[in-house]
Amino acid sequence: MHSKHYKLIQSIIEQQKNNKVKMALVNTINDTPLDMLHKTEIFDDDKYYYYHTFSPSDIKEPYEPFLSLIKEAYYKFFAETYSVEEFLNVCDVYPYVNNIFISYFETGYCEFDAIPTMIGGQREYNAKRFVSSISGILSYIANYKNICIVLQDLHYCGFSTITLLFDLINTYISSGNIIIIATFCDKVSISEHLSAFYNELINYCDKRELVFEITENYTQIPDFSQVKHYTADINRINDDLKKIKSLLDSFAFEQANHYIRALHKFISNLDEDDLSQITNQQKLKIYMYYTLCNIYSHNYKQAHLLIDTYRLTLPTVDYNSPELIKDRDLLLGLYYTNLLYCIIEYYQGNNELAIEDSRQCKNVARILADERLEFKASTLEDFHNLYSFTYISPPDKNSTYVKEMVRKSLKLGYIDAAIIYITLFYEIDEQTLRAIDRGESFSYFEKAVQYAISIDNIHLLQHMHNYKNMYAYNYQCYNTVKKCTILCNQYIKKYSDKFMEVGFNYALKEDYAHAFLIHNQNIISNYNKYIENKTKTKPIQDENLNIFYLSEICIIMLDIVKDSINNHCYEDAEKYILSCLTLMHNINKPLIFNATYGLLYSFGAYCSIKMNLVYKSYTYMNNATNYYSYRFETPDYAKMRDYGHLFQYYIAKGTINCYDEYYDEAAECFAKARKLYEDSPQLFLLDYEMLCIEEANLYNKQRMYEEERNVLTDCLDFYIKNKMPRKTQQLEMMLEHQHYDDYYTDYKLKGIFLDEILRASRDEYNDYINSEETKNSFFLSNWRKNINSFNRTIDSLNKNTMNTLKNVFDMSHALYVDTHGTTNIILYNDIKLDDEHCFIANLRDYFTANPYAVYLTRLENDFYKLSSLLKPLQLNTIDEIIIVPIFKNSKLCRICLMYSNILDILAINVYRSLFDKRLDIIEMALCYLYDAEENLLNKNKLKDYELLLSVVQEYISESVTEFKYIVRDGKEPTDTVDRINELIENGSGLLINRNEM
């Protein structure tokens, strides 16, 4: 061994004995293998030595080489004492991921199936717990025997290895029982997908003086440019796919994405002969794994494009065909295609399409007679239905069916699915919840809690706790809320994060001071968690958590808005309204309901008119009216999430009308609000007083004093019945014409400023824009390639690409028109129009004069600026609309119109998006589509020409004298082959048989 290495590492070992250094990175170009270390006397007998060299050309194992180290250590030190399951238990491994370790010990590959509950927000939590479990096992081994890990050529390691090294550095190495020595070379170029995180690791260690340099001059520096990195090979695709699946199943998503992307690129560039060697099963796995990687990285555009591309390779099938059951590969392709569509559409909010796809999955699973596949499809359908329910209409599931799904969940090992079924489909009706509130049984939720504890999933327990409370709030079962929280808290005492108290509980008790204190504390807590996560070194930082914490702050602020309005603190309320609107725009992620916008605008209008800010109240009210316009033609309110929000809208609008002395209009608004209250009074426990006071004010202005007294008396009886003494006292004093001023008025945050929170949201906004630009660039490059590769006819090209665009950009309907000639040709249309030709003609006239793309959203004041042009579309039902004209040589050649339906969106958890920021991407994608149409048209013309030419030349070679040309170009007839070719090429001749003349 090189003396420099020997002395340096001996020094590091000595320092480690004194707990000064636990990890060391040695920067060297020397290629002497460090596996010679174990032959020296550097190491004490009490150390467990593990050596590993990273290879640049292989697919790296997940968290290489630490899983291999754990497996070796188990069989070397613990196998005689513990079974694998017992060993994992004593190492305090997160139980839910036990099977990943067990499968690796048995086969060398990780296996894990989380699809049934991956839509419940568990993926990131499980990934984090898996990494910490690896660190925990290493710590347990180190307590038995000190570990020294020597890693050669760290510059060739994988993404997951760096993730684990950060966790070890920050968490476990401080124990002093583990030392890691790694060599790296700063002369080596790091793979682009890894370089940023790798450099962060090096810099992180360098700042802590853990990087050591070998400075001796070497006579020859190796030529690192000749190093061979991973390349796909048609002969080892099966082995590569097994390794990539192992990465996916162990949450090493970024690493899996790097290799599957290379594999996908490899097969995309194969010629037809080589491509025929790729089996259907291999194609399915490549597209499925690549799509999953994009789903995990929230790149839904690319995920949609990939699965659309794979779908085009599948034949059209008749599900009732007896032949279908014989083709298992085709059935699996159909199953997983629909399954991936289902997952993507859930994340994008296309609930109806997601449920339809999950049902298709069930049909295929039944043909396959596969219970596990059918169970997955059933859970996806059930959980999609779950996320589409409203607060006043929880999901309706047959109890027998739910019990059977719980049984199957436990049988197939999906304990988290059992927890969700028990919590969200049991004990959710009013009768049962009121019985629990009276102190009767609470057995099913207790069982769900016990299951959550059995797999140590506190994240899921908190999630279910929140849903249970939501059900209980619907029916004013506040004892149930309290019991639920106490029950859950009993099981999480070992964790630092307890369930946060809910300020709403104190508002219901009319203790607004305590309610605001809880709100204030929770805002600070979420902001501190945001800062803690934000300052973590990547890749440890979880960007989804950044958005989650900020959105939680937004939701808490909404509660402050409600409380401050109840206490007549309108200026404070408007300050938080503006902050909420800014936050919702900036974080721009799927965590806040779309319907919240309408509520905030209604609150803003009400606060402004109460402060005599008339113009501002009109502005807020116009936005709210734009948002709710679809409601005025939709009587079935109860199916929508914003059912309760309309109550606030009608109060605000009625109050403004009353201020303007439009008394009839005000009375009509209050009547509509009262109808909503009468349909579901439990929703408006805190807000009913607002309606009654504004109605009383209207009657007072009209000198209808008896009606004024009646409405206040009715309100008084309501709050006496609901045991709310402050509101009771206020109404009693109003009836006696006395002034009531016992309001809580201190709504200023303490310990944090709103500007800090808004600044954080702007940072997230900028990060989001940057990440979207990268995703969009990647999407466009793949879009252009795919639309030119997998479509054989103009019809299939337009149908497939328009469906993809709708799915990728969250649109419900589309119209795509060819305007090249004097007649408009519809290339794609799924919009029902009474007179589509007249509508298209008007669009053509407008965009010929105004050659600019149009984007409109109902949240903007100019939403109706093109109302006359777009009248056939029924704007009241549209959430967003985009119209893109495509020009070629200054002439309008295409018009594409897409829009989303508000009724589809509000029935589910669909969220606002920066659609205007994607406008350029959509325009570019449509330009590529037009180019693809032209290329396909020219290609088809060329094929026709080549076919005709071959026929003519064949006849000419046999007997030229049998043919004569009638020429249309004014030149003399000829029988020469050159002249015939010329005429065929320019289309100016007609070939006929001489015998037919």
Please render the helix and strand layout as text.
Elements (H helix, E strand, L loop, with lengths): L2 H15 L5 E5 L19 E7 L12 H13 L5 H7 L7 H10 L15 H22 L1 E7 L6 H14 L5 E7 L7 H16 L3 E3 L23 H13 L3 H16 L3 H4 L4 H17 L3 H13 L15 H21 L2 H18 L2 H16 L12 H14 L2 H11 L4 H8 L5 H12 L3 H17 L3 H12 L13 H6 L3 H23 L8 H24 L3 H18 L8 H15 L3 H15 L14 H17 L3 H17 L8 H14 L3 H17 L3 H11 L18 H34 L6 H15 L4 E6 L6 E5 L6 H14 L4 E4 L9 H4 L7 E11 L2 E11 H5 L12 H40 L4 E5 L9 H10 L2 E5 L4
Parallel strand pairs: 1-4, 1-5, 2-3, 3-4
Antiparallel strand pairs: 6-7, 6-10, 8-9, 9-10, 11-12
Helix pairs in contact: 2-5, 5-6, 6-7, 8-9, 8-11, 9-11, 11-12, 11-13, 12-13, 12-33, 12-34, 13-14, 13-15, 14-15, 16-17, 17-19, 17-20, 20-21, 23-24, 24-25, 25-26, 25-33, 26-27, 26-28, 27-28, 28-29, 28-30, 29-30, 30-31, 31-32, 33-38, 34-38, 38-39
Low-pLDDT runs: 38-42, 388-394, 494-499, 907-912, 959-976, 983-997
Strand content: 5-15%
Strand order of the largest sheet: 2-3-4-1-5
Oligomer: single chain
User: Mean pLDDT across all residues, rounded?
Assistant: 80
The number of helical segments is 39
Please identify the structural class as seen in this structure.
alpha/beta
**Distance between the amino and carboxyl termini:** 96 Å
Principal-axis shape equals globular
Largest sheet: 5 strands, parallel
What is the share of helical residues? Answer: 55-70%
Q: Total strand count, please?
A: 12
Backbone CA Rg = 34 Å
